[in-house]
# Entry
Amino acid sequence: MHELSIAQSLLDIIAQQAQIYGAKRVTRVNLRIGALSGVVKEALCFAFEVLSKGHVAEGATLEIEEVPVRIRCERCGIFEGIPFLVCPDCGEIAELLSGRELEIYSMEIEDGSEGSEGYS
Amino acid sequence: MEVKVVKDILEANEVIAEENRRLFKEKGLYVLNLMGAPGTGKTTLLERTIERIKDRWKVGVIEGDIATSRDAERIAQYGVSVVQINTGGACHLDGNMVRMGLRELPLEGLRVLIVENVGNLVCPAEFNIGEDDKVMILSVTEGEDKPLKYPLMFQVSRLLLLNKIDLLPYVDFNLDRFREFALKVNPHLEIIPISCKTGEGLEEWIKWLENRLKETR
# Structure
């Protein structure tokens, strides 16, 4: 259910960035979502679709890269796909490398020059 | 045209949480974010806690709920300042909701502020509110596998209060196995088994709180 808040925060960032780049429209948004975030992809897409009505990103595609949990044990190496912060082999405390991501890393925009004005 | 952005989506919340944190520091407040599933015993723990500490420290409470002010009414009976935040559907409190709640809460003289988050084992874990500590409460009736299913909340918490241990003889909850799961998910997690019903473990919990108050001074 926190997907609604996340979608809203995302749209705020998009609006701000769209203004910086002078974008007329945002057509695609690329995200990285870690497995630990508990975000349900479908719920996020739905929330985004609903909240983006009338927004510069209305109709934009959300490209979501799901990032697995990865941990590193100094002795035994890297493990993927388990939510532990200890090494599954030796039991030592491991370092979390990925899995907490909730980030936007790029977006596809149509700016004023190549957008609708070009066709008028 | 593709443009790089690279931003934490919850960055705006982090900024507000940081502002809250500064305010709490300035006022000399220790702030605890209490999280747990619905029915796990958050409000009852608050009641048992307030009874035990209100003569020593001035306590304030922020109650987060989707709807109703039932919890705030329960807490108000103990003579502490309490503010109810109704999230109107949202499953967690965020920095901004807490900031708005603070407008209604006189902070002068307060030493401890306990924020009871919305009952939920997933969403509150992702949102900082400017707290000193996140403490989660889980009851034995919820099952020993919860650290594996909801790892994030266990990972962001400093302390886990395992409630309703008076029910252990009646439920299939293996305490050792639970500890093993919880510590795999977060090896730094402190665990105190309690029963708000019988009072078992509550002294240890109050000691923990006392300690944190000293450490964060």
